[in-house]
UniProtKB/TrEMBL annotation:
This is NAD(P)H dehydrogenase (Quinone). Gene3D superfamilies: 3.40.50.360. The lineage of its organism: Bacteria, Bacillati, Actinomycetota, Thermoleophilia, Solirubrobacterales. Keywords: Flavoprotein, FMN. Pfam families: Flavodoxin_2. The keyword Flavoprotein applies.
């Protein structure tokens, strides 16, 4: 697999960056190609504007920075994507939200490559890596729900979340829950992690992990 990690921390040696690097290391350990991209660097041209006034005559986004290259040359070609962000005001960092906001220009029908972008974004396995100062379970729920809905909209299987607690640079390594180990494991297992998103009409086997008619302990792989 080709794996892209989008790192949203403004601190290049921050805790969410450490999670991003650990995830990428785990993916490489499983034989995948993995690369981490700094969203703050790639989206230096600013936030989403009024596309009706700033879109070019050819339908291309006129914000001149690295977003276009990141989207068309890296993200669309990847098989999986991970989002790494600190928790800011109980939501994602601005550079990651800007990544999703500016996607609007590229999936709009007026963009010359919108069909290619929509097809390329669909089906990628997605994961979320969060660094936060507090462990309170509700602190990250809003962001996780938001990413879950955005990945569902893009038809991307959302296969895992890792949260690491820390404040000072690199402090996440001292979190006793070992989030760096969890991030590496998530990267390594990204291709095979179980994912379901049931609808009322979804056919369901009688058992999750094997043959519904086999006795417990004799399940075969589905």
């Amino acid at each position: 697999m080709d794996v892209v990690v989008l790192a949203a921390s403004p601190r290049p040696d921050g805790n969410s960056q450490a999670l991003a690097d650990a995830f990428a290391d785990g993916a490489r350990s499983a034989g995948h190609a993995a690369r981490v991209f700094d969203l703050n660097e790639r989206t230096s041209g600013g936030f989403l504007r009024d596309c009706r006034s700033c879109r070019g005559p050819d339908g291309e986004c006129s914000i001149a920075d690295g977003y276009r290259e990141l989207m068309l040359e890296h993200v669309l070609r990847a098989d999986a994507i991970a989002y790494a962000t600190p928790l800011y005001w109980y939501g994602m960092a601005a550079s990651l939200k800007n990544w999703f906001d500016r996607m609007t220009c590229y999936i709009s029908a007026s963009h010359p490559r919108s069909a290619e972008v929509i097809e390329g974004l669909s089906g990628k396995r997605a994961a979320l890596l969060i660094s936060s100062e507090e462990r309170y379970p509700g602190a990250t729920l809003g962001m996780i729900a938001q990413v879950q809905e955005m990945t569902r909209y893009l038809r991307q299987p959302f296969v895992g979340v890792v949260q690491g607690v820390g404040n000072r640079r690199g402090e996440v390594a001292h979190d006793p829950t070992d989030p760096l180990v969890a991030a590496r494991r998530l990267g390594a297992d990204l291709e095979t992690l179980h994912f379901t998103d049931y609808r009322v009409e979804t056919p369901r086997p009688g058992a999750v992990w094997g043959d519904a008619d086999a006795p417990i302990g004799q399940y075969r792989d589905l």
